[in-house]
Structures are given as structure tokens and as C-alpha cells.
User: Fold this.
Amino acid sequence: MTAITLAPGLVYYPDYLDRQAQEQLLQSLREITRAAPLYTPRMPRTGKPFSVRMTNCGRLGWVSDIDGYRYQPMHPETGEPWPVMPDQVMQAWTAMSGYPHPPDACLINFYEPSARMGLHQDKDEEEFDAPVVSLSLGDTALFRYGGLERKDPTRSIRLKSGDAIVFGGPARLIHHGIDRLIPGSSDLLPQGGRLNLTLRKVEKPL
Ligand code: MD6
Ligand code: FE
Assistant:
């Protein structure tokens, strides 16, 4: 496992999942999205739709609607509990988080070729001592990251299928986003596009 430290607390693991592991994870995600369909989240206050579709697995899921951002135990459209986190996802957390408790939530983002995600911080959790662990599948994305202040200078890296990145310690609350995908860069998803999983510990451990 190759670990490249991009900044203090920001660690990049190129090719964390080999092709077989990517296909296995994709199969798990197909089962998850059958039980918990991808839905279109909306921006708080304005109700403007995200270009990314989302679902979750694990005990809690991150959702966004006109009322705000939050974690909740059920799918916003079906009202069902989120599907269980696959073992492969739990193993990725154990391998990369350096955190002694299992994650509560795994947000699954699906990008159509034209989707993007604006610069943001992940700060809806209570437990910032735990990192966020991110796994990417499908088309390569241009991932931008900056600093704790929105105006801080940014850098970009390409996240390709099978790559992982971990935001921990002093990097836990840095700004980041997806500028765009590189269409046709992966043949993992038959129709193209990209899936990203972010694993989080939401609640303070007992
Ligand atoms: C994405 N990722 O890669 C969006 N957040 O599609 C994130 O927003 C993210 O990759 C926190 C930590 C790592 C991430
Ligand atoms: Fe994020």
C-alpha cells in the first residue's frame, strides 16, 4: 500500500483497490442502490438540486434538503434504514483511518459525466478526531483541495478508479471539491461516470 502525504493529515493512496476489488465494490454498490436508490439532494434554503446523486450505507446517512444538512438513520425518499456497510468498506476504514472505532456512515456520491461538487468542508460530524476516508470508482476526477479558510490557495490532483484519500488530523476540515470528471477515463462503469464513497465517524464514541 503506497501512501503519499500531500499535506499534514492529507494522505493519498493511489491504486488502493485493484481491478478485482473495484469490481467487487461496484457489485456491492449495485445491491445497495437497489435497496436505497440514488436520489437528488437539494441545497438548504434555496432547494437548488445537486448535480451529484447520493445514497448511503451504514447506521447513519448524510442528507441535504431545503431544511439543511444532517445525518439521519433512514433514506429520505423510502423511509427505510440504510443498507449495511459492506465488509470491504469496513476493511478500508481499518486499513487507512488509524481510528479505533468503526465508521457510522458511508456517503455514496454518483457523478454523471457533467456533475461536479463545489468547494466545501465536511463539518456536519460531531467527531473531528476521526478522519474521513474516501474511495473512488469509475472515471477520473479533478479533485481540488485547499486549506481551512475558503480563500486559502488550492491544489488539484486526479483521483482515478481505485484511489483512496484520507482527510485527518490538521487536514480534517480543509476545503475540497470536484471540478470535473475526465470522460472516458475508466471502463469500470459501463455507462461512464464516477462513484465516490466517504466513510465517516459521526458521533463521539461512548
Ligand atoms: C468526491 N469527496 O470525491 C467528493 N470529503 O466525490 C469529498 O467530498 C470528500 O473525498 C471528505 C474527505 C474526502 C473526500
Ligand atoms: Fe467532502
The domain at 4-200 is CATH 2.60.120.590 (Jelly Rolls). The mean pLDDT is 98. The CA atoms of residues 140 and 182 lie 5 Å apart. The chain is about 15% helix and 35% strand.
